[in-house]
Design the sequence.
């Protein structure tokens, strides 16, 4: 009989904690299976045939997502990386292979530059700063590009968003130049409150919009790209070529539909409470919150201590006090001498008052 694997310390301590501030409690395979089985009593009809190569429940999710984003249609993908490749490659077929993207954009930092290695695309940096580009910067670029990609929010710069006027100026410039806009909106779902517009308004002038099914929505996996019907028809060709036309995908799709019903309506509340949590954390000696206040329900939190010591303090606080404040810490970064963690305000965090956050943070720092 095989021995049961021992969970790592982070998994174990976060599971045993009575209270969590950032993120959600990790699940075992058994718990995840039980959560999926619980959806048999949900609003989605389960007596229809299982999907085959993208029909049935997959089309239900595609149409639902397209409606939420204000687009005619959408295509489901098993991974976000594949969705990004197909989206940009589809634009390359009609406009050209050069994409203007931020140096911190997800394809540049987290996808092993697949857009260049696999898809034959080339990127042009929009700006050298850790913020979204201004329209004037793009207009002044001395290297031509064919497609403008905007990551909303820009995760590696602190989940940053432009304001509405800045985004409108970028859309306007792209239209004047005759270049399509692709939104890397893996976390777009929670961006509407900061921009002060509905999701269809945010997406209206973008030719294609990528959204994640598991970031923010809590689905098991998957992503979608929404756009005009002809664009979606062509992107499905690239989905097939990249190996994304799977035989059956109903478990992940069902969890994504549940996320749209359960988590999407709660995101504005998470965004609002993130400001409360961030303000409470910012009072620690030497602390930095980026951005301040947060633009979404996620933000960066920096402390002037080595990451190893901060991680150890987090484990001890969960083990000894039943409180898990943060995920993992890492260094070095753009702020020398400081370590950073990403804070995600979800349902568990809504139970925390500012006073409770401050007190728990003081207990955390005392363990260093």
Sequence:
């Amino acid at each position: 009989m095989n021995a049961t694997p021992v969970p790592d310390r982070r998994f174990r301590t976060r599971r045993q904690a009575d209270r969590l501030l950032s993120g959600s409690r990790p699940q075992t395979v058994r718990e995840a299976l039980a959560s999926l089985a619980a959806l048999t009593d949900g609003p989605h009809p389960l007596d229809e045939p299982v999907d085959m190569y993208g029909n049935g429940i997959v089309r239900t999710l595609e149409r639902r997502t397209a409606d939420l984003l204000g687009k005619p249609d959408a295509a489901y993908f098993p991974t976000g990386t594949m969705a990004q490749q197909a989206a940009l490659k589809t634009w390359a077929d009609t406009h050209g292979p050069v994409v203007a993207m931020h140096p911190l954009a997800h394809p540049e930092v987290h996808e092993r530059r697949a857009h260049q290695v696999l898809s034959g695309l080339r990127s042009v940096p929009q700006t050298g700063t850790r913020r979204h580009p201004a329209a004037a910067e793009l207009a002044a670029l001395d290297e031509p590009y064919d497609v403008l990609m905007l990551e909303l929010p820009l995760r590696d710069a602190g989940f940053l968003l432009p304001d509405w006027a800045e985004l409108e100026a970028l859309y306007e410039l792209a239209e004047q130049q005759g270049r399509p806009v692709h939104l890397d909106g893996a976390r777009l779902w929670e961006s509407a409150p900061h921009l002060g517009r509905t999701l269809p308004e945010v997406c209206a002038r973008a030719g294609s919009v990528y959204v994640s099914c598991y970031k923010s929505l809590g689905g098991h996996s998957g992503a979608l790209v929404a756009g005009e019907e002809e664009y979606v028809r062509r992107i499905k060709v690239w989905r097939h070529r990249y190996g994304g036309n799977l035989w059956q995908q109903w478990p992940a799709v069902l969890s994504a539909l549940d996320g749209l019903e359960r988590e999407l309506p709660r995101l504005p509340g998470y965004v609002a409470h993130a400001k409360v949590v961030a303000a409470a954390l910012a009072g620690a000696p030497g602390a930095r919150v980026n951005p301040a206040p947060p633009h979404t329900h996620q933000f960066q939190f920096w402390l002037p201590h080595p990451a190893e010591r901060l991680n150890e303090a987090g484990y001890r606080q969960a083990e000894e006090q039943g409180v898990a404040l943060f995920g993992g810490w890492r260094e070095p970064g753009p702020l020398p001498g400081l370590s950073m963690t990403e804070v995600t305000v979800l349902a568990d965090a809504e139970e925390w008052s500012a006073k409770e956050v401050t007190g728990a943070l003081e207990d955390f720092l005392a363990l260093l």
In short: The domain at 9-31+265-366 is CATH 3.90.1150.10 (Aspartate Aminotransferase, domain 1).
